Amino acid sequence: MSPQSAGRRRASLAALLCPVLLLSLAACSSASTSASTSTSASTSGSGASATTQTITDAAGRKVTIPVPSQIHRIVMVGAPPDIDGFVIAMGDANLIVNGVPTVFSAAHFGWKILEPRLTSLPNVESNIEAPVNPEELLALKPDIVLTMDPTMAGVIQKLGVPTVVITEENSGTMQERDAATLVGKILGKQQEAAAYVSYFDGMLNLVSQRIAAVPAAQRPTALYLATRPFRRNGPAMEWYLRFLGATDVAGTAPPLSAFTTEQILKWNPDFIIAHDPTDVPVITQNSVLKNLTATKDGHVVPIPQDLNEWGDFDVAAPLALLWTAKYLYPEQFTDINMVSEAKTFYSRFYGQQLTKADLNEILYGIGGSTVNFGA
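The structure corresponding to this sequence follows.
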């Protein structure tokens, strides 16, 4: 996340209910009627099947959506980097018809490696979690919209487009598995969703077994840290650290909480997990933070990135958990090769046979890509 994308993840209600969107509702009424018609349940003659189904989304909303065979065009809004991967993992990347705002995709090399098509498609937002342009959204003729934001979902629903909240970003261990299960139901890809859940559960079991015998006194302290300004980002890392029995020195501070260097020095974590590679020199060369135990011990390492940073909400959560476990407990995971694990994951869930260079970019930021906004 960057200063240029300050609205990312926590866009205000006022921004979401922006004047252009509200004023456009009346202007879009005819288009909305057309969109609504496509989502009405219809049958013709005996034995005909309905074209809609009603589901309960992650926000507890009852939503009538097309059945899987009627979903041909999907728009992702709010935080596409966080949720695009779940559609891709179901094998339906080709159904996504909107792109990722350039300010994000241009900075994150994972898009160019895993789904370059999405970097050139039309946008309906100027930035991550920026207000949605209703005309641009309706022009894409989506059969369904997926989001992480209930308020945004309610506004778009008024345009006549079925809109589903697939997850609400929180620090719960289950949210990635639940999101995959819901997307699988929406797209009729229950088998693919079950495969992802099985992989996820297998990783939870592997990691928990490996660290079970580590005494409490040997469990590390850690901090997930972004810079410009110094802050913590999304809550996914919170549950990784909790699951791993590590002490998150930032405690329950919510995402985007800003910290002073003096506060970080007082916490003095054993390990720092940097938000991205460009954060590392900002941390290690800081006049205060260079005195940290983590800095002195060489324990300031950037978390990998694909469509999103692994420390934030991402379909790669099982890999992110394994990476974090190996970083914090190296002796318990000496036989784990993250390049090999990542290669298997992206082959299985993205259908991509990545090269060593591709994997180095994702895992280590090797190759010269600019991976931080404004850097």
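The chain has two domains: 3-40+49-190, 194-364.
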